[in-house]
Design a protein that fits this description.
InterPro entries: Aldolase_TIM, DeoC, DeoC/FbaB/LacD_aldolase, DeoC_typeI. By secondary structure, this protein is of the alpha/beta class. The chain is built from 9 helices and 8 strands. The chain starts with 9 loop residues before the first helix and ends with a helix.
Length: 219
Amino acid sequence: MAPSPTSLTRAQVAAMVDHTLLKPEATPADVAALVAEGERLGVYSVCVSPSMLPVQTSLLVATVCGFPSGKHTPAVKAAEAAESVNLGADEVDMVIDVGSAVAGDFDHVRAEIEAVRETTRDVVLKVIIESAALSDDAIVAACEAAMAAGADFVKTSTGFHPAGGASVEAVRLMRQTVGDRLGVKASGGIRTTEAALAMIDAGANRLGLSGTAAVLDGL
């Protein structure tokens, strides 16, 4: 049985964190500082924009694809992901076409995930569904499309959408939908230890955090 969130240690939570810097104004110096902090904190990975690759670190390196709008063609998303893998990315977090999900066109959502999956080979692929912008039914259908397309994780949010970021309710619904077949990443607006633990309790097994130190300091 997995430990309850209240019994998790600082190191256990840190090992679930993608330590993230995706601000458009981020500089190479900012990325270097992110890496140094991530290594000090013992996080799972650092997550940076594709243009900041390659990154020299002992940690795993994640990047984003079709970020943050998702309004890129499947071919462009696939090409971006392929270039990121060639530049050393270990994991790719792609944004779906959220409008397609809102419109109920989950064939398109599945097709674009499949296009990226084909170019990412053995790299971990996470699918950002922008859960705050979707109905519960659309969240379920987006998760089902990700499973059918061969993704490794479903992820709540970019953190850039005006509808908001991760919610406990969305994470719980995503976990109920994918069961133990996929990972669930909660990301977007998680700034406190309590919020992080609530996401884990709801079923998240990865967290996307930019304020990682503050979250871990509460443990």
